[in-house]
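cache lookup: miss for this entity combination. No prior model stored, computing from scratch. Input as submitted by user K.M.:
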Amino acid sequence: MSLDKQHPVPVYLQLKQLLQNQIEQGVYQPHQKLPSERDLCQYHNLSRMTARRALQELVAEGLAYTRLGKGTFVANKSKINPGVSNKVDQLVVLSVPYIAGPPIVTPGMFFGRQSDLGKVISLLNSNFVMLTGPRRIGKTSLLYQLAYHLELNLTSKRSIPVLISVEGIPENEFFHLTMEEILNTVNKHLPVEIISDLSFDLSNINYSSRDFSRDLQIILKNLQHTTPIPSELILLMDEMDTINSYSLETQSQLRRIFQRFTNRNLSIVVAGVNLQKHWAGESSPFYNMFIPVKLAPFTASEARHLITQPVKGIYNYDDEAIVRILEVTFCLPNRIQQLCLEIVHSLATSQTSRKHITIEDVDKVLQNIQWADEEVTHKDKVTSFYVDSPLSVVNEEKSSYQATKTGPEDLEINQ
Amino acid sequence: MNPYRVGGWVVGTDFYNRENLLQDILVGPADGLWIIGNRRVGKTSLLRTAEYKTANTQYLPLFWDMQGDTNETQLVESLLEAVENAHGSEIDKRWQNKGLLFKGTVSNISQALRHLSTFARQQNCRLLLLCDEIEGLNLLGQQDPHVLSQLRRSMQQNPNIRTILASTRRLSRLYAIQQNQDTSLFLEGFEPRYLTNFSLEVAKQVIYRTQSNHPCEVEEKIVSKICFFSGNHPLILQKVCSQLYDHHVSSLRYFDENECILDDQLYGTFQQDFDSLTPDEANILLHINNRVLSLEEIKQVFPHISAHSLRRILHDLTRLGFLRRLDGAYQAGNVPLGQWLTTNPTHHSTQGGVTNRVLREVAQERITALQRQLIVCYRHLGQLELRYAKQGLDTPPHIMTEIEDYKTRIIDIETELAELGENVTPLPPAE
């Protein structure tokens, strides 16, 4: 099966289906490593984001799993314990109710951050937005959800979101690769003759910022005339810290281009951990045109939602167990997902048919857990990033819980 | 959707006031202006508005974004890009004929500007160069003074080109950079104008969005609080409004000052602005910090600064929005700036290399420009009053309005001259 870029089915879904077929046909065996993003890009002549998204879809569906720094592997079906009591449990384990590691691609698996999502969408009215937060706080997931929601949002104009991961893009290829990503998405919205008029050429590695600016102008101009309604391009640029290593000249060129298209049918959201704050240049710094939106750990109610909703109707948590989870994860979404995944997995693969998760279940898993986000293992590192410590949220939740424990039976805290 | 605009430049109904500056740009007597303003105060919006207002008139506007340009190749490249942008944006249709331009290679900036000037003349108009983010010229002046000299000549000596520069005051370093060079000073031919915070009246218009089809209804006490909090600083004002906007009721909610914390954008902006201060200015600002101090109290702490210099420093700091006057005393220009100054004040340092000496040059240029403006204002006022004297009650209403406008402007100019320590008596008209 070859990939057809003109086909209405998005290329990433075609690639995901191709890999899925190969897994089902045994081309790739359980535990075998799947081709890397880079290999897929080169082999199929795709952008890195397309390859990444296809692999993430496989993970989201439980057909593959990722190992940090190692790659993506075929899921091991034999790992499912034959003693698991029923098909529902098997399904839970198979479909991976919690997603620890990769970004949340599927909207149905996205819990919490609704207010952040709403805030960014609201601000996108000709403002440029910068998402900041420590690693693994959910910036990439939010970008995916933004793309999903914006695509659905058909009002007076159609939004065309383009997800671009800037990670690892060398400075001299930045404008070329970024335009490649844009064209991968917008080409189906524009007439072929417009695309062929652009300066962009896959093989032209000398593609300059001026070429980029000129092409972007042509694209935006023509998107204004799409039918039945005009379109707006929304660039969602992840891992923008990469540009910190670029020269001031390139950063200034990029700012100049972004500035130029303010007030046009272009919106931009960039995401990064620490977009450069100290500027050595004479003219305006790159970052000061963006409205910063800082992603904090979840609120207690968001965290509770994330713990309970993915397994709703299958498992339920004791309140003590929930408070313990909040306490040890500092309400960091990635940690919650990792811990809950281990808990559910532990319960589903045990010989018990119990559907009730207790504090003992949590503590048992905690004995062996190794957090994936090693850089925030120490609580001070978590709290130092924020003005309001997530610990205060946890403590609030804890005391609220203590209060309800002595009171009547209402165990829903801060909902 | 949130109607308040925080990051990018604005034009049309999102652009509020700045009428005096626009008048200077569009019809003022000076063919070279230097708009000085802090970061995020609206310089780009002003130039963009001038571009829109002059499109298809006797001017051919060209918005030239020079950010990051520090050598001739980059200057030529960004100028060519500006022409392409003008062509693509279709703001002024005459750029559609740009095919006539730049046949063959453009080797230097003088040649490029000469081509543009000729092109404008062919269209029976003058070229209006709107140059933004020009601080890179500091480096150009150090590394390649010859090119800076060519640029000055092209901009100032070609009668078919009118040039408006916009930058922070960091550009004033050019005075020092060119001090020992055997060339004319680049900035000498450009009259300085300050782009300040909004007046209270305009700030309120922005909050209410009076120019929009969907104005906001906001309680008066909230408006007052926002104005005081932001010091009518365009970025902070819009930022606070954006945070307080409740789309369910299309209005602004009440707020607690503590919730509007310093964010990275403001932090960066304050630091960048602070970098453009001289050491004396920085020390005065840090001393005032989050307090309200009288002139006498400030004088006592800085006895080495003469009364004349201190008055001029306080004038500049106030004009740039670092300070504001409160019952004759001085305090930080807005609440977040006061908070920022309180935060680790020892970490604040000035990196921009702006000195008292170069600011004296700027002040002198400013005084000369103000005196020229004063002459023009008095002359026009005299003519209008003569007309009023002749026509009496039959004088058209717009003449009366103009008389009032000139009187207000004269008071503003004389006040500024007095703050700069200058005799307010205007110079005799030039022959």
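stored under new cache key. The beta strands of chain B are 32-36, 59-65, 126-132, 161-167, 191-194, 245-246, 251-252, 323-326, 329-332.
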